[in-house]
Specification:
This protein is of the alpha/beta class and 266 residues long. The protein contains 10 helices and 12 strands.
Length: 266
Amino acid sequence: MTPSENATPFSDYGGDGPIVVAVHGHFGSARTFAGLAEALAGSVRLIALDQRGHGHARKGVEYACSDYVDDVAAFLEARELAPAIVLGHSMGGVVAYTLAARRPELVRALIVEEGQALVDANTLDTRGWPKRAPSLRALGEAIEAQGMPDASYFLQSAVRYPDGWGLTFDPEEMLRSQELLVGDHWADWSAVKQPTLLLHGTESFVLPTEQAREMARRPGTRYREFSGCGHWIHDDDPAGVAEAIGNWVRDIENDAPGSGAVEVNS
């Protein structure tokens, strides 16, 4: 749904229960959360955004973390959803906790899946990625030919254009966005006062387990490790993530969020 040219597009997946506003990571879109929304439909109403440069959102804009944060803030205010429970994956997790730190009146509670406090410079070089391909399969093969072992995540952001299949993000813009996110975000993570659920996959190539556990030491953080899962935990273990989020939201509603010990899904 696209209310206006400059508004943030979003997908309201419906469902019963409290609203959770979901913010995807680099190369994603609102569609990233479709499977999770279905798994959560009995306990949560998920509203997922297309962030700038992604999905159906505007392109050719600025991509600093603060720009992404401003977009989410404007969305929450325009739709009178604040204070909201905000879920962020990867870069979206950094955006979510930065929003909570800098605009605390807008965020009631946080769910951070694989969002780093220290973002290293190991960016994905997408400059040679294809603009168009004759079929969805060919697009996936062309992406994998650039060194990606599995293109399935990126193909969630693929659509059919008049001249063939392509991605809804510009690869070169996404490289710039990744570069702008690199840095030390510990100050914002440490400044968050809202109760937080931190989800980490032990096989992640993005968030090291040592860093995740250090982040979990922040007061008010409940930490859940998913053994054998990678960076996209919601794809690797959708039932486990849905259970963790459903329980967390229920505890938030009952004012009993808790924190502390490591919980492991094996």
